[in-house]
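ARCHIVE CARD
Drawer: 12
Card no.: 0347
Subject: one protein chain, sequence and derived structure
Cross-reference: see card 0346
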Amino acid sequence: MSIKTTLGRAFVFLVLSAGMHGCSDDDKPGSAGGAGGTSGTGNDAAVSPDGGGSADSSMPDDDAPGAVPEASSDSGGGAADSGASDGEAGAPPPKASSCTIVTDKKTPIAEPSGRLVYCGIDIGSKNVKISVVSVEKGKPGTIKDERQCKRNLGLGTLVFDSSTGTALPLGDDFIGYLVDTVKEFQAICTLDRGTLIGADATQWARDATNIQDVRAKVKTGTGIDIDVLTPDQEGQYGYVAATLDSPGHLSLDPGSNSFQVSWRLQDATDIGTVSAPLGYVRASTNDVEPAADFASGRAAYVADATQQLVAALAKLGPPMTLAAVKQLVTDGKLGKELFVVGQDGAVALVVRNELKDSNGTWPSDQKAYDDLVAAQVFKLDPTYGTISADPIAPAELTTFLTSAIGPSDFATLKKDPVKTIYGQKALVVPALLDLLVTELGLDKVVMVPQEMVTGYILTRLPPASIPR
């Protein structure tokens, strides 16, 4: 059964009333919970998305059983001999991957008693990630993270020139790095005794002019068919991950190259979604960074994002408007909270001015930033399940956007190394949250740690899709 994507079309998904997500500590797996605050409930049914082949979690023949090969950080390994594309000229080799929850890539997760282990790979525009999750058989609402790993390949900036709007091919060097990374993540899944559900790819893959060549080389090197998601699928998986498909909510997946806003009405089975190819990297590059000050950059971005949202909503069948979505909130068909998927606490730290040190200095080292984010303790909220931080109120967004970013802050956030580590996200995502809160009449932002790939996994769990 294929996924249907806009309001007014039939759509079948898991009905889940609970969810859970792991915290960053090595010895603290995730706690139960989810939207609605119950656990261990749900239907066995899953949906098989359109397109894409099945994935094999077995390792390539040249890898010894139980070994986890490190993805190459030079031009060797799986990288081909030919040069990089124009978008990759001078690009340094990507750094090695890193993991949370269980950080040692050579140590398997503790075998979860009575639970099945699944893995999903998300080949995103900025990071390639693997989520290793466990779930009780027949109870998808019991899903929790056992390990998350990521490697920053920055594919989005390599295949799309934001300043000119030009799509580019992904060069052979970075195809090789991608193959190496997928092979490493396959090995981690095997080490953790998991079944690899598949590998998805997002906006970068829709942009890359040689995506079919990329898919073929990844298939040859790893045995995996990459599922190039449509914008609607990306939004739907984000909604399922953020809310575990509980009805009556709005969700946002604020990616680096695109963002998706999705919703599911009370007593409805379909998920409405719109997507804009204006993620925080593109928006920061084109709208915010060229501006004389943050206020001007924010104004330019808000105008751009609003125009793209309005245009995307108008293309739905039937057409929608921001005012129409707001009316759904007013009528109680959608809640007044915005669930934001894939948040590790960093946005809350920025908005609440907790990322800077006592001297007012922004962290400029990747490890220092990662340590600050990892120190955040996920909470089990009785209403929203596992959350990354206390919900953000509209007044907090207003304070941050109007008074927290002075000239020196703006200069720091739009300049490397801070820019690449978290600066572009800090400049754009809070402005997007404020835009949606204001336009849709919302009263809080709920940040959840589930990644979009969690929704990808959940919709593909056996048994095959059945109508509910």
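Annotation on reverse: The first strand starts at residue 98 and ends at 100. Residues 86-229 form a domain with the Nucleotidyltransferase; domain 5 fold (CATH 3.30.420.40).
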